[in-house]
Amino acid sequence: MGRTILAGITVLAVLLSAGGPILAGQDQKQYSLSGMVLSVGASGKSFVVSHDSIPGVMPAMTMQFDVQDPVELKGVTPGALVDFVLLVRGESAHAERIRVRQYTSVEQDPLTARRLKLLRDATRAPAAAATRAVSIGQPVPDFTLLDQARQPVTLSQLRGKVVAVTFIYTSCVLPQFCYRMANQFGALQHRFAAALGRDLVLLTISFDPVRDQPERLAEYASQWNADAGVWHFLTGTTSDVQRVCALFGLDAFPDEGLITHSTRTAIIDRRGVLHASIEGNQFTAAQLGDLVQAALKQPTPRRTR
Length: 305
Description:
This protein is an alpha+beta fold. The protein contains seven helices and 14 strands.
């Protein structure tokens, strides 16, 4: 699949011996990097990143980086988009000045953002208003919704598989939001064709259940040749959908015939625990695929009798 840690080690070895931007002294070089965190070492002294390329220096790939101070990784979780500096001195290298990039929508003006926050609880059903968003590392509460083939899909029945979740509504007019989210899952369907159904399931949930009935979702899903057995486009009652949106911290409310909404993509691991939760659309399909691949590599939990 490329973009591997092994390739990253090779490139890092080249960096240690090659020239580059000099900071202070002939043996110190600095490279600015950005990417998506795939995992954080248990010791807190390293992390794995699917990073962008450095033109003329190294291609986009997945690489593990060490840190000298574990404090650098405080608040860094799988799925986080980060900017950091790679310092190379002689035969050693480490990352520092790690900054988690907060998502800011350039399309959403401050007034709209404030309205979204104020109307969030006012427009939710009581069950959704009382629901707290799941934190990374916590089990995701069970839910059941209806897919494009009018088949019920229950989260707990997918235990033992990695579940990727995103949110859309079919009437969205901005291609950089809902269409982009669905298109990224289309890339996952292609990349992980062999794992779909057996190890990986895709859930695309509509937050417009009144208009997005199964038949409409089936038509929408056909744009990506989605296999309804492994890539489910889900809908349900308004209260059920709002509760699921609340579980993942997805905000949406009607706005002059359209829906003003946030954007969220989540990865649930084989144990049913939230592995990653990504706000916004400022990541690539390749990075999302690398995150899914990292989750797939985690061991399958033993079933208890």
